[in-house]
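Bug report (template v2)

What were you trying to do?
Predict the complex of my protein with zinc ion.

What happened?
Run completed; filing so the output is reviewed.

Input:
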Amino acid sequence: MKILGFESSCDETAVAIYDSQLGQVEHELYSQVALHAQYGGVVPELASRDHIKKCLPLLRALLAKSRYQLDDIDGIGYTAGPGLLGAVLVGATFARSLALALSVPSIGIHHMEGHLLAPMLEPDKPSFPFVALLVSGGHSQLIRVDDIGKYQLIGDTLDDAAGEAFDKTAKCLGLAYPGGAALAKLAVSGDPTRFDFPRPMINRQGCDFSFSGLKTFSAQLIAKLGGADIDAQTRCDIAAGFETAMIDTLVIKCQRALQQTGLQTLVISGGVSANLRLREQMQQKLAEQGGKVYYPRLEFCTDNAAMIAFAGACRLARGERDGEEFTCRARWPL
Ligand code: KG4
Ligand code: ZN
């Protein structure tokens, strides 16, 4: 099967074709980051308007560079939520209209299911069952995954998501939104031990997270040290201290989730899984207890359509498809 995938839940318009016979994917992506940067965050109405402009040109660009034509497509998967509802509706409407025109089935995909299955696009892929750590701008969750659609939430954030804490700390350091990757770059030259950042919730039982205290600690420290006037080395030290505290907390919770479930396989996905130190530390710490970690390639950590095409292929292969009703959701538990 050749499945077309669309992603438009936030500020990336993306389209991909997954070929299940070859296990290969081709994709195109347009990021709206520059459009929203001047506002310090994503402006939903601007995001929707831009998705409308980009869907067709991106699809054309993908077809032009790929070995496939529209006639080859057997089905379409698209993000049906959670996300910015207007943005989701644009991609969903485009995808469903195209499916109707091509007389192929379509299926609405949960954006986080896409992230969760993204490591399965790699040659060295995990097999079920596994524990998934989903860490993005809107989610920090630990999920036990037994099969496609068999998901059990074992840990969630009580307040901010991991990516949100990265972005807010980055903003206090004067970095442009979304600042996670830029903060990680500063951290490379920093001393993580100079400031004593808290490791939230590690002494509390269970697998839940809370990052608002860590975020507030960063904000207060940065304000105390002089805000925008902080010298370059101190900025790097703050970034390194924050990043290390975040990683330590995520590693401890993942170790706990594996112990609790008796599983040895961990999958990490979502935008924050692009963090190289997180990947390295998690690999090293879990290997010490016999665990193995799987990640998507870097370009499939953040939002993309390859993961949606793949999830669509899995669901369509099981006989699932859209009915007459049209359902998109801003909020949607996995
Ligand atoms: O999955 P994603 O692209 O969008 C959502 O569904 O939210 O995740 C975006 C988040 C942002 O908070 C961004 O700052 C963070 O992922 N992020 C990173 C890195 N790259 C992206 N955080 C830490 N280190 C990175 N290298
Ligand atoms: Zn995402």
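What did the reviewer find?
The radius of gyration is 20 Å. The mean pLDDT is 96.
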